[in-house]
Amino acid sequence: MDTHRQVLDRLRSSFKSGVTIPEQFRRTQLSKLTAMIKENEELILKALHKDLAKPKFEAVLSELDLVSNELHCATTNLSSWMKPEYVSKNLATRLDDCFIRREPLGVVLIIGPWNYPLQLLMVPLIGAIAAGNCVIIKPSEVSAATDSLIAELIPKYLSQDCYAVVRGGAEETTALLQNRFDHIFYTGSQTVARSIMQAALVHLTPVTLELGGKCPCFIYGRVNMEAAARRLVWAKFFNAGQSCVAPDYVLCTKATLDSLLPAVCQVLEEFYSKEPQTSPDFSRIVSPKHWSRLMELLKRSSSKVVVGGQGKEEDKYIGGLHGPMCGHSGSPTVVVDVAEDDALMQEEIFGPILPFITMESLEEGIEFVNRREKALALYVFSDESSVVNTVMENTSSGGFCSNDGILHMTLPRASGWGSYHGHWGFETFSHRRACMLRGWAMERLNGLRYPPYQENKLSWLRWTASPKPSCSLM
Ligand code: NAD
Question: So which domain of life are we looking at (predicted)?
Fold first, then answer.
């Protein structure tokens, strides 16, 4: 097996040869990646099921189709993305060619997490290939089946001179990071992100960090409780709560809680039956270690469990036997009476535990959220547009969605929906090179800038360079 250095040397010399620059090369690699996804759909679904018991329905929507759509978007738009972007000129540069050229960064490293182990590696990879880079991808060792499948498939489909998979956990990744990359793209936890930044610092490597956090969900005012319960439960328990944009906790009044809870219990039963542990539609916690972390959080919490709360380690399942409110066996976990300093509020939950925090007023909830770190996503459920607007205008978060959860991530990607989807992926992995192609014309006008400096020359220069609504001289 090649060492990290050998892999990097191979990729760097390919990059230097310019092989990734032509549009046709990038197109070929993207179509090979498309074939890889299409031809191995069953194997991918099997691996995702092995890692997370991911239901086919969720895997198709959030992994396979999402990646295929990104590939389609990149291949459809590649020519226009690669075109030079002409910029506005002033009088002094009017005869020049002034444009921004997108150039690849070089050899880039993409490190992925385990919760969407295909999507969160492939989407940045698509951007990096489209932008003409050579790429090393490092899947998460935690989602072992998908990790191993990706390592097997990528060299079969993509150019081995330009793309490679390096496998391993913290130790191997730390060793890999000692090498110089031209960009590091990392998705994962905030703790590890600090180590990534430290490694990048040594080589002054630019980084993109896609991290986690706690995503609040306000439920306030007049609300269609049944619909709210369905959308909330779906968004929270999709992938067993292991989504970076899953609603982490709910903020509502006591009155809302009283009418919402029965609806939540009913929906849980509708979705996952009275025995969620037997439901094929409810994922599992990725590993015993992550299962223990969640169970430990529950143990340390002083909140009141109203649904679930018990786990089966051998099945990496968190749900429960009899929750006092719903009285059915095996369901994801809902807790109430959660204090601000409760264990569940100290870190991102990232699992199927949904805390409800009661507030007296919307303002109190907004203050609560604003006291904490900025959220990746923020949700508000209400029939009243004034409530939605009040929350939107008085808080800040990576993304915002009213009356639903997670769904905003499926929008056609514009800036802000994760700055690496679609065109933004291409931009993240491109260097924007400002280019000015000048001729020899207008030397008299150019002469204004040469010494000996004079006040009247300066006035002319300032006038030529200043913004003008319309210029009648040219
Ligand atoms: P993680 O940080 O533990 O691991 C992510 C990657 O880093 C893995 O490939 C792992 O092998 C590697 N790694 C682990 N320890 C390392 C170390 N010491 N040095 C170098 N590399 C190391 O994250 P995770 O548990 O896989 O993912 C969960 C986190 O990711 C959550 O916080 C979640 O919110 C976040 N996340 C964010 C997004 C987003 O788009 N913002 C998407 C998914 C997940």
Answer: Eukaryota
Nearest ligand 1 atom to the CA of 168 is 11
Residues at CB less than 6 angstroms from ligand 1: 111-115, 120, 138, 140-142, 169-170, 173-174, 187-189, 192, 195, 210-212, 244, 348, 350, 376, 418
User: Could you tell me if 96 and 52 are in contact, meaning their C-beta atoms sit under 8 angstroms apart?
Assistant: no
Q: Where are the alpha helices (DSSP H) in 40-118?
A: 41-52, 56-59, 65-82
Residues 150 and 144: their CA atoms lie apart, in Å, by 10
Burial 86-95 (b: 16+ CB within 10 A, else e): eeeeebbbee
Q: What is the C-alpha to C-alpha distance for residues 183 and 136, in angstroms, rounded to an integer?
A: 11
Q: Rounded to whole angstroms, how far apart are CA atoms 428 and 125? A: 11
Q: Mind listing the pLDDT tens digit for each residue in 404-415?
A: 999 887 665 544
- pLDDT at residue 49 tops 90: yes
CATH 3.40.605.10: which residues of the chain?
4-212+416-433
Q: Compute the distance between CA of residue 467 and CA of residue 312 in angstroms, rounded to an integer.
A: 68
Letter for the amino acid at 205? T
DSSP state of 322: -
> What's the predicted TM-score (pTM) here?
0.93
| CATH level 2 (architecture), domain 4-212+416-433 | 3-Layer(aba) Sandwich (3.40)
pLDDT in tens, 60-98: 999 999 999 999 999 999 999 999 999 998 888 888 999
Asked if 245 and 409 touch (Cβ cutoff 8 Å), the reply is yes
Tell me the CA–centroid distance for residue 320 and ligand 1, in Å: 28
The domain defined by 216-405 carries CATH number 3.30.470.10 = no
Where in the chain are all domains bearing CATH 3.40.309.10? 216-405
Number of separate helices (H) and strands (E) present in the chain:
17, 17
210 is catalytic: yes
